[in-house]
Known about the structure:
The protein is an all-alpha fold. About 75% of the residues lie in helices and about 0% in strands. Helix 1 (about 1-25) runs antiparallel to helix 2. The chain is rod-shaped, with a radius of gyration of 21 Å.
Amino acid sequence: MLLKTAYFIKLFLIVVLTTAIFASVEILLDQPALFIFITAGCSALIRLIWHSALKNEKMLAAREIPLNKQERPLHPDLKRAA
């Protein structure tokens, strides 16, 4: 549950940082240095958070329990008995 919550928080942060980049376009003509600073900082953070979210997504996929009995792997003791 905690891993899933962290994953959704990271996705929310990516959306917020992307919105900050789009909102900073208005200051491009007045203060280009500030625009470059905001864009570079947000881009670096988005990249770091994106890679972390991908790792969380892989962990969530590995923990997912299959619903069908056919897909569920057998316990090692049950394999010997069969």
